[in-house]
Design brief:
Elements (H helix, E strand, L loop, with lengths): L2 H5 L3 H9 L5 H19 L2 E4 L1 H16 L10 E5 L26 H8 L3 E6 L19 E2 L2 E5 L5 H8 L5 E6 L5 H7 L2 E4 L21 E6 L2 H11 L17 H4 L8 E4 L10 H12 L7 E4 L8 H22 L6 H12 L2 H24 L2 E5 L14 E2 L2 E2 L11 H6 L3 E8 L5 E8 L4 H14 L11
Helix pairs in contact: 3-4, 6-7, 11-12, 11-13
Length: 471
Amino acid sequence: MKDRELAFTPAWKLRNMLDIKDISPVELTELYLRRIEEFNQHLNAYLTITGDRALAEAKEAECRLMKGERGSLLGIPISIKDLELTEGVRTTMGSLIFKDTVPDRNSEVVSRVKKAGAISLGKTNTPEFGLSGTTENRLGEACRNPWNIERTSGGSSGGAAAAVVSGLCSIAIGSDGGGSIRIPSSFCGLFGIKPTLGRVPRVGGLGQPSPNLTSQTGPMANNVKDAAMMLQVLAGYDSRDPISIKQPLGDIQTEMSEHMKSLKLCWSPDLGYAAVDPEVKQVAKAGALGFEELGCIVDETSFALDYPMESFLAIFTTNAYVSYGKLYETQEDQLAKYTRDSMARGKSVTGAGYASALQEVQTIKGKLNSLMDEYDLLLTPTMAVPAFPVELFPTHIAGREVFPRWDYLPFTPVFNLSGQPAASIPCGFSSDGMPIGLHIVGKWGQESTVMRAAYAFEQIRPWAQHKPHVS
């Protein structure tokens, strides 16, 4: 099997190949490291590459396999977003301030994938503290989209997306506080899921993290089965995380193969407030209607929410200021402009303003709960536009003037506020060849339904045969 073909082989197939010794973890790791050396210079997907350490982990995995040990991620080379602490490996948070920081411990997420036997190839690129929907920082060049290196890969898990879709790792760990898994998944043409808030514990981080009201770690992969394999490892209760869910995830790898005929879905092109590029709307709607081929009912809904971005930003930026405000006060000159802007905005939010935003979240949850009492899943476009040129944020969408930094991602933050599981799955391409994602939103705690829908959609609208230009 040629290197390129092997690099894009699904992780669940690699798992079988490793078990029957068709390939060794060392050979697989060497393959991905060769590809990183060749392609990362064009993409800036990785901030730190841990070649020697990865090979040592691969040799350890090989010994475990030779002893008959088995595990879902044992010997699988992955990447880790550089917002996760990694013991003995540089963790920058996308910030000049932490550019030389080497933690003495792992975050809980990293501990779980290490225990499962995954091999870490390195730390993927992220905007500073994950505060942007695109991936630029002051550590180096912007992360690029493998479909067109003049375009953004999205963010804040932009490096993770670029690495997966270009075959520079098998599966990636991303995180999503306002769309940071789903934005780059849509822009780069892969599958990514934000689990229910509290499903994956957030334990271990730099700075002084604020109460977690929006953020979840999750998998990003070239196919749904690989993501399910990773999510099964990441999920689980941890008493150190005050919002950690005790309810078990269940066996999603088995449950997602169940039929779809009993499900009732609703499609919304705009949730009542979003400006959406007509081509994106058309492609995403065609994807949504594809579920009718699976025996589902798909209704177009007139469901509408009030514009949620002001409330989201009040909460998101205030919490960011609580976490990193001391750096803003003492080392402002080292921070990116978007970080300074976020800090200034968060600092200016009053107690009454924050309480008002929290009240709006309760209103949003109530409306969404009522909708989800009637439907199993909600479908929208993932993004309002395809990937745009690096740092050229859209000022107008569908003829409407928009807030450049945020209104290209109108659909993702609202489900960080509600806490519901939500995924992006590729559903087509724009006329200029950029991927477009379909947003699949489930009821609170029901990742299995989201994964089942995504897996079924993948069978009738496969996308893995499409490969980006830089791969």
